[in-house]
Design a protein that fits this description.
467 residues, 3 domains, seven-stranded mixed sheet, four-stranded antiparallel sheet, 17 helices, 14 strands
């Protein structure tokens, strides 16, 4: 009895591999479109991981760029009419890949945003007419893109219905702008009754009067906390003469760095203390539950405080109401100029006062580039006594000149939390995040450290920007 063997042969013809790469490239366009859409069915199911989906979108785009090598086989047929649309799509995709590089994307994000939209449409359109055989891979991309825009429009109407004449309260979403420093704008608006968010989440702000396009959205981290405390409870921890701290519990607050493009135009409006129309889209971002930790360490650099401040307020209110079992929270904030403290210093002081006796709150503020003469510009409930070294503002709140020794702080807190659980949340520059990662390495928070009785540590890292 004999068995027949079938040998699988792989063609050596380069055209076979070229066509296979092109087919694989076309088949991935619907996936890359879904991953890049903010309101796609996938992002609805995992809306808290929206940023992670965006990272996968970028990684897939790089893979597709490599698959574009299949066009090299057709260079000798460059004059054929049927290949013109293919070359147009390939050229647009190559330019898009160059603009996509982080140095360009980070320096001129608005330029990247508009160029990305135009080149993506050219790529899809050119690819569709280039390969009619596999057009069923391309036309769903336009459907997904259109569905994303329809869902986004519905969300805008739902979250901003008062602007569209549905219900009462027309105009209540107007926002006030303040130029806190030449490089920082604070945007404050009343929280809509249906809008709720978790600490660390962000929202897209659509400001037709400031943006280049009417419905251009810009993401900013929500610097305030969605509090459940009543106004009387909040007032007990704030100065009666100051309305600013209260807004961080009951309103939506955003701190925006003034650079180029949109933020520069926003700075001009804030200099006039103008009121702007704002449409809200969100919230987005992951919800971080810190209820199970014995201690929490919050580290921020500059405007990274917009991420850590709401977490601080959440921990204080959670322990105050009995929803949290945390016994210790350490808040570390580094700025270049002591004048920057006035952004939220009153709020931090209020949080310290609102903290119950069962919760130890330590605040460490560091000034890295400020001169001694700037200390008198910091407004606190107790005057700073010394321009150099360490000055105590209130119980548990200290200000120091120079850069923080994050490794010493983290090692000390790890030892303090020995036998328990600790969460470290950081938002700042790459150097700050890198220092925290290195410190909480194998020597401090490795697998064997728990066996030695050390604390179980969870690290949360939030990056600056969205480019």
């Amino acid at each position: 009895m004999s068995k027949s063997l079938t040998r699988l042969t792989v063609p050596c013809d380069i055209s076979y591999w070229s066509n296979s790469a092109g087919t694989l490239l076309a088949s991935q366009f619907p996936l890359i479109t879904v991953l890049g859409a903010k309101d796609s069915p996938v992002s609805f199911r995992v809306c808290t991981l929206f940023l992670m989906l965006n990272v996968v979108h970028r990684m897939l785009a790089q893979t597709l760029f490599v698959l574009g090598v299949h066009a090299a086989r057709r260079i000798c047929y460059i004059n054929e009419t049927c290949l013109h649309t293919g070359w147009m799509a390939a050229l647009a995709f190559c330019v898009l890949f160059i603009v996509f590089l982080r140095p360009i994307r980070g320096k001129a994000y608005e330029f990247f945003f508009y160029t990305h939209m135009a080149l993506a449409l050219i790529t899809l359109g050119g690819a569709y007419y280039h390969t009619t055989t596999f057009g069923h891979y391309l036309w769903p991309c336009f459907l997904i893109w259109g569905l994303d825009r329809v869902i986004r429009a519905i969300r805008l109407v739902a979250f901003n219905h008062s602007y569209f004449g549905f219900g009462s309260g027309s105009g209540t979403l107007d926002a006030t702008t303040e130029l806190l420093t030449p490089h920082l704008v604070r945007i404050t608006l009343k929280r809509p009754p249906h809008f709720h968010w978790a600490p660390g989440q962000f929202a897209y702000l659509i400001t037709p009067g400031v943006s280049s396009l009417p419905f251009e959205g810009h993401p900013f981290t929500i610097a305030s906390y969605d509090s459940t405390m009543n106004a009387k409870e909040i007032t007990t921890g704030t100065e009666k003469s100051s309305e600013s701290p209260k807004s961080y519990w009951k309103e939506l607050v955003f701190l925006v760095n003034v650079r180029e493009g949109f933020t520069k135009r926003l700075g001009h409006v804030a200099a006039q203390k103008g009121t702007i129309k704002v449409f809200l889209d969100g919230p987005y971002g992951q919800r971080n539950d810190l209820s199970g930790f014995d201690s929490v360490v919050l580290i921020a650099g500059g405007t990274g405080v917009t991420y850590t401040l709401p977490i601080l307020l959440d921990v204080v209110e959670g322990v105050r109401s009995g929803r949290r079992t945390c016994s210790r929270v350490v808040f570390v904030w580094t700025v270049r100029d002591s004048r920057h403290f006035k952004w939220v210093l009153d709020v931090i002081n209020s949080a310290v006062k609102l903290a119950p006796s069962s919760l130890t709150v330590e605040i460490h503020l560091f000034v890295t580039g400020s001169s001694n003469t700037d200390w008198d510009t910091v407004s606190t409930d107790s005057k700073l006594e010394s321009p150099g070294g360490v000055s105590t503002l209130s119980a548990g709140l200290k200000v120091s000149l120079g850069r923080p020794s994050l490794d010493n702080i983290l090692k000390a807190e790890t030892e303090e939390a020995r036998g328990g659980s600790m969460c470290v949340a950081v938002c700042g520059s790459e150097s700050i995040a890198g220092t925290v990662r290195r410190t909480l390495g194998f020597s401090v928070a490795g697998p064997t450290s728990i066996m030695r009785g050390s604390a179980s540590i969870t690290l949360l890292v939030e990056s600056f920007g969205y480019a």
